[in-house]
Amino acid sequence: MNIYQIVPNLGYGDGVGNEILAIDRLLKEKKYHTAVYAIVTDQRIPSDVAYPFDTMPEVKNDDIVILHLAVGSDINEWFKTANCRKIVRYHNITPARYFEDYSHDSFHACESGLEEIKGLNATPEYCLADSDFNKRDLIQYGYQMPIDVVPILIRFSDYETEPDESILNQYKDDKTNILFTGRVVPNKKQEDVILAFYYYQKYYNRNSRLFLVGSYDGMELYYNRLADYINALGVQNVIFTGHIKFNQILAYYHLADIFLCMSEHEGFCIPLAEAMYFQIPIIAADNAAVGETLGEGGILLDSNDCLMAAGCIDRILKDEKLRTEILQGQRKELQRFEPEKVGEQLIEHIIRFYESDSVAEVEE
Fold first, then answer.
1. pLDDT tens for residues 248-260?
2. What is the pLDDT of residues 323-359, one digit of tens each?
3. What burial letters (b/e) apply to 210-234, b meaning 16+ CB within 10 Å?
4. Burial letters for 263-273: b for 16+ Cβ neighbours within 10 Å, e otherwise?
C-alpha cells in the first residue's frame, strides 16, 4: 500500500500545508510508504519532502490517495478518474461573496472551486472533515459516503521556537496588547476587530494597542479600506504586520494580553488553538466553526457585537478570577488538539478505511 497526499498549492506556514507535512512525517514514522505531491510548492519546503504533481507515479487500485480539498484545481478532475482508494480531507472553501468587492480573481476562484467541490460528491469513498461545520457542508453538497471528523493536526512543538527578540523589545512597554492573527481578508472581518478595539480604547483604556498579524497580498483593496476606516475612527496604535516570518508571529503571541476573533467564516480556525497554547484569553464571535473550535474555553459572543467585545476585553483584564477560569477552560479544550491524539485518530481512520471492503464497513 502507498499513501499519497495531493494538493494544488503546498504553502509554507499555512494551516493546510502544515497539516500535510505533519501527516507525512507521522506516516513515515509509522513506516508507511508515503509521499506528497503538489502542482505548486513553496520554495522554502525541501525538495525531498514534496514533489511536483506531474512526477507522481501511476497509482494502483490498492493505493490510497488523500486529496486535501480547499480550492478548485486540475487535481480535482484527475482525482475523479484515478484508479485508487480515495479519501477527501475537507478544509472548506470561503464563500465567494466575501471577495466580490475586493478581488475579481479570488471571487471567481472561490466560486468555481465550490462548483468543483460539489462536482466531486460521488468521487471519494470516504471523507475526513476537520470540523462538524465542514462535515455539514459536505452533506449539504450531496456527499453520501461515510464522513468522520478529526481536527487539524497541529505540531505544537514547532511553537517552542524562540520568538523574534527585536519585536519583543520593540513593544516592551506597559500598553495592553490585543491580537488577531490570520490573512487580511474580508471573511475574517478585521473591520469588526478594529471597531471593537476602537470602543475599548475610547471607553476603557487609551493605553492599548492592536496587532493584526497576517498577509494582505492580493487583498490590497481591502487593506486600504481598513486603513481608511482606522483614520475615520481616529483609533490609535493599530499595527498591520503584513507577511512575516514564523518566529515573528510567535513574538506577537508572546506579547498578547487578549486574542480577539470576529471572523464570519472559518472551517476550523487554527489561531484559536494557537492562542490556547500560548495561554492568551480568547474572545470570539460564534460564527461558522469558531464556536466548535473554541469549545468551552474563552468567551463566545452570540454576534459580532463590537461594543460587547470591548466590554469583555475590559472585564477579563480587570477580573483576575475570571481570567484564571478562562485560561483553565482553554487548557482543557486544548487537550482535544494534542498532536499525538489527533495523529492517532487520523492513522486509525485511514487504516480502517483501507482494511474495509466496502463503505458500509467504514461506517460500522
1. 999 999 999 999 9
2. 999 999 999 999 999 999 999 999 999 999 998 864 4
3. bbbbbbbebbeebbebbeebbeebe
4. bbbbbbbbbbb
Residues 6+ apart with CB under 8 A from 267: 70, 90, 91, 92, 130, 131, 133, 134, 288, 289
Owner of C-alpha cell 464522513? 147
CA triplet 247, 171, 180: central angle to 5 degrees?
60
Query: Cell numbers 496604535 correspond to what residue?
Result: 237
State the cell numbers at 71: 480550492
Backbone angles phi, psi at 282, to 5 degrees: -110, 135
Calpha distance 261→258 (Å, rounded): 10
Sheet-wide strand order for 64-69: 50-52, 33-41, 2-10, 64-69, 85-90, 126-129, 147-149
**Grid-cell match 505544537, residue found:** 156
DSSP class of residue 57?
A: P
